[in-house]
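USER: For my understanding, would you kindly supply a protein sequence with its structure tokens?

ASSISTANT:
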Amino acid sequence: MTVASSSPPSRLPLSGAAAVAPSRKARARPGGDGALAAVFIAPAMLGFLVFLLWPTLRGIYLSFTRFNLLTPAEWVGLDNYVRMVNDPIFWDSLKVTVEYVVINIGIQTVSALAIAVLLQRLTQSAVLRGIVLTPYLMSNVVAGLVWLWILDTQLGIGNEIISAVGLDRIPFLADETWAIPTIALINVWRHVGYTALLLFAGLQAIPNGMYEAAKVDGASEWRMFWRITMPLLRPVLAVVLIMTVIGSFQVFDTVAVTTAGGPANATNVLQYYIYGSAFGRFQFGYASAMSVALLVVLSAITVLQYRLTRAGQSDLG
């Protein structure tokens, strides 16, 4: 009987380029993928540390001080926060901001969703998508100035048209009742195209086979929207809502170029009040305290939205 050898079979050495390739690859990246990734991440990380993390930490520190740029920061503990709680203008600014956010988010989300569904169900023309996105290419300052001229009570073309049809001119940006809704609609006009394209991208991930099967079963477009589109679009819609809510709470430039917080503080949103406290009255400590309060509010709203909308979960399986 012959007993098989237990030693492993001999392997012939690689020759030529095959033998040299691993050593060349090892020499080309001595630090591995980690070092290469660090090189690409470094610029973004540097920007994050210098322009986001450090200003945030500095602002938190200043919120506990009295600081006006002319003298060294003086530690005052919780005085700025006590002042903020007892400041009626702060609470009025927060109320105005919430009013703006509700109007802006409500109209923008519904309009963007309608535009996205129409783009996805009726046409997917790249030219049409470009037209929808055009207002977003304009800065908030330019958009605000353009609409300021259009809606001017005496000379604006918008009021000229209203007057031509026999109606009274409307002081869109000079009346306490009209000012915030008008600013909200200006920002809806500018941002709705971008929001619609984000939702359109989410709609592209929904398999067409689901719609075809629903049509075979006799489902209408309205029923398919509620039974297929909305449930499967929920994660994308949740993320879009989080982004738009955070951006809406930070509205500033449109207010600055159209109403400057007026009339009678009717558009004095929180960001504009913070700006006025810091660069108008040089109360940087108090402005920092309000900024920290806004950061806490936005963090709480974001966490709540994320949990309620289940943004990290998808029904596509």
